[in-house]
From TrEMBL:
InterPro entries: Acyl_CoA_acyltransferase (IPR016181), GNAT_dom (IPR000182). This is GNAT family N-acetyltransferase. GO terms for molecular function: acyltransferase activity. It comes from Kineothrix sedimenti. Keywords: Acyltransferase, Transferase. The keyword Transferase applies. Residues 1-139 form the N-acetyltransferase domain. The lineage of its organism: Bacteria, Bacillati, Bacillota, Clostridia, Lachnospirales. It holds the Pfam family Acetyltransf_10. Its EC number is 2.3.1.-.
Length: 143
């Protein structure tokens, strides 16, 4: 498997997000203004895009913001989400990032907790379902 990083929303990430968040989960629109300021990661199995996530630096919070992870249905349950999340965390760490925030769907909070994320505050309704704010403090790595 190979991960590619883009400073724009590539077609592969767009199609994965459309299939999962709009067609499968029923979100009205998965695309927004942070696509233009985000780094987009796409994990490929050969030439097939199988997962994607995005992140960007928020200067107001002095931290990175991570978007939802999208994993193709056939690849779920194979630790692919954890794999692409770790790749994003590694890139953020190498960029000097030390803290990541994300808004997780409540049903996905357990996944992020297993990856070292901590819940902050109470669940709230956003983007058509319940979410919870989570964060992770990154350790300094070998830069």
């Amino acid at each position: 498997m190979t991960t590619r990083s883009y400073d724009y929303l590539p077609k592969e990430a767009s199609l994965l997000r459309e299939d999962i968040f709009v067609k499968e989960q029923g979100f009205v629109d998965e695309f927004d203004d942070i696509d233009d300021i985000s780094t987009h990661l796409v994990l490929f199995d050969g030439a097939l895009p199988i997962a994607t996530c995005r992140y960007y630096f928020d200067s107001g919070k002095s931290a990175y913001i991570m978007g939802r992870i999208a994993v193709a249905k056939a690849y779920r349950g194979k630790n692919i989400g954890a794999h692409i999340l770790k790749e994003a965390e590694d890139q953020i760490r190498l960029s000097g990032g030390r803290k990541i925030y994300l808004s997780a769907q409540v049903q996905a909070a357990g996944f992020y907790e297993k990856q070292g994320y901590v819940t902050s505050g109470e669940p709230y309704y956003d983007e058509y379902c319940l979410h919870v704010l989570m964060y992770k403090q990154l350790e300094a790595g070998n830069e």
